[in-house]
Amino acid sequence: MLFVPNKLLLEKAMAEGYAVGAFNTNNLETTRAIVRAARELDSPLILATSEGAINYAGINNLKTMAEIAAQESGLPISLHLDHGTSLEIVMRCIRHGWSSVMYDGSKLPFEENVANARQVVELAHLVGVSVEGELGRLVGVEDNISVTEREAAMTDPDQAQEFVKRTGVDALAVAIGNAHGFYKGEPQLDFIRLEQIRARVEVPLVLHGASGIPDEGIRRAVKIGVDKINIDTEVRAAFQKAVASFLAENPQVIDPRKILGPAIKAMSEVVKSKIELFGSVGKA
Ligand code: 13P
After folding, report:
1. What is one Gene Ontology biological process annotated in the Swiss-Prot or TrEMBL record (predicted)?
2. The dihedral of CA 175, 53, 49, 233: what is its sign?
3. N or C, which end of the chain is more exposed by having fewer CB within 10 Å?
């Protein structure tokens, strides 16, 4: 297998006390920016592709871009499906050579999430592909809900233990107050809950929605034992800002390469700063 399964990357991270960054990509510029950053810092890397990204770029395009970037870099890189919600998309990625898949049944009732995740694990493990499951719901930043509702959506530590045991997932994504997109104000992460989950679950833990979490919060999460951290929004924001400012200063330029060049550099800088924060420099 060209790509490295998450299990291998994350078990090393767990043993050595750092986290591997999973950065979302959906095009050539982002893929190259992410891999360039990892290469400069000699870091392991997870290239994350959502179902939306696969629909946008085409599964073969995404795979080939990742493959070439991985080959040229010589780094241990995983190609990972982010938030797969059906067996179809999971199987499609496995057939096309992805080394890791996330099955996200977090919106389903517990028993259904367990049964589906278990099925994905049985199939994926036959061909050496790692599986990430999710328990607890990530509440959107825009969701106007009460504190009690927010807590009810978080991962229950005892249930997490049962979920991992019954499904056999290789990693578990947790909900501890984290959310996708930028946070309105300071994110309120429940680190006590994270510690309780860590104490009950033996597999690597995953923190989604890490854009906008202050560096101190990330360091604390890694110290407690988060082993994979997902970043998307901050890379997108760097892309947007670089393109907007380039075009504001150079409205006459029509060459996409000139317009997108600064964006690649800006995205790469964000990825580099995250890799440094996660502690995976030199761990390739
Ligand atoms: P952000 O967009 O908040 O960085 O979250 C990324 C993520 O968790 C992808 O699964």
Report:
1. fructose 1,6-bisphosphate metabolic process
2. negative
3. N
Q: What is the pTM of this model?
A: 0.97
**Given 2.60.40.10, 3.30.1330.60, 3.40.50.2300, 3.20.20.70, which CATH number is that of 6-278?**
3.20.20.70
- pLDDT of amino acid 269: 98
- Non-local (6+) Cβ contacts of 131 within 8 A are 100, 101, 102, 103, 117, 120, 121, 124, 125, 167, 168, 169, 170, 171
Residues within a 6 A CB radius of ligand 1: 24, 82-83, 180-181, 208-211, 230-233
User: Of the ranges 69-73, 134-138, 195-199, which is most confident?
Assistant: 195-199
The candidate with the shortest Cα–Cα distance to 13, out of 278, 197, 246, is 278
- CA of 117 from ligand 1 middle (Å) equals 21
Closest ligand 1 atom to 234 CA: 4
- pLDDT tens figures, 162-174: 999 999 999 999 9
Q: Tokens at residue 221, please?
A: 């999460």
Average pLDDT over residues 241-249: 98
